[in-house]
Amino acid sequence: MRRLTGKVLTIVLILFITTAVYSQQRPITDQFSGTGYLGIGLSILNLSALQEQLRASSIIYPALSENMFQFGAGGLFTIRNWIISGEGAGLSTTGQSNDGYKSKLSGGYVKLETGYVMYRNKHWTVFPLIGIGGGVLEFRINKEINDQPFGEILDKPVTGTMLTSNNLFASAVLGADYQISVSSEDSDEGNIVIGLRAGYNVPIKVFDWKIAGTETTLTDGPETGLEGMFISIVVGISGANFEDED
Question: 219: helix, coil or strand?
Fold first, then answer.
């Protein structure tokens, strides 16, 4: 995990060094703009508490992967260089299995952020964001069985369990967007934006685990939320038109 974290931070550092060296800086203006985007990325969650519970169990469960694929959408609105942003995404990882059981972790989140444009030229916009969000983790355990008649499964339906946990978190993000004009002249009509987001989620409150579909609360469960670093690539359409001041 440390090696992957180092690679991610290196990518982010290269991006901003390249931006500083090869971009010609222009004044930040009182610009109104809006961007809608889709994003894909990687979240690296801190699952140590949950992994410890699995190891302590009398049943040998497969370890969970901490690397989760994320896919989502969001919107970013800028007014006088202040930013308001909203985003939602789903999280998923490949299931892990051993001789008798299969485990899988998935989830999702929504968050609201605010920030400020700290660098802008005709193409590049660089900005930090801080925010707060809510998320859910779903932990599924299935006992692997051989092919059976449909009726036998109805007679003995307990072949797996799904547990859920809601949580609140704070988020710190560093973002960079590159705007591509789709017309020969500067225009505010549908420019393409390609961007990068990198940051870290810090848990505020992790609620008790529950059995999915019921109100049954599980006591003494692991305090595992959406804590961890993430990086994502976004592609969207912007209504911004960045021009030099006279």
Answer: coil
Residue 155, domain extent: 32-222
Closest CA to 75 of 201, 195, 172: 195
Cβ proximity of 129 and 111 under 8 Å: no
Give a yes or no: residue 243 inside a domain. no
CATH of the domain at 76: 2.40.160
pLDDT in tens, 56-102: 887 777 888 889 999 999 999 988 889 999 999 999 988 777 777 78
Return the sign of the alpha-carbon dihedral for residues 242, 182, 89, 101.
negative
Q: Which residues contact 214 (CB under 8 A, 6 or more apart)?
A: none
Q: What is the DSSP letter of 201?
A: E
pLDDT tens digits for range 161-185: 888 999 999 999 999 999 888 765 5
- Residue 10 belongs to some domain of the structure: no
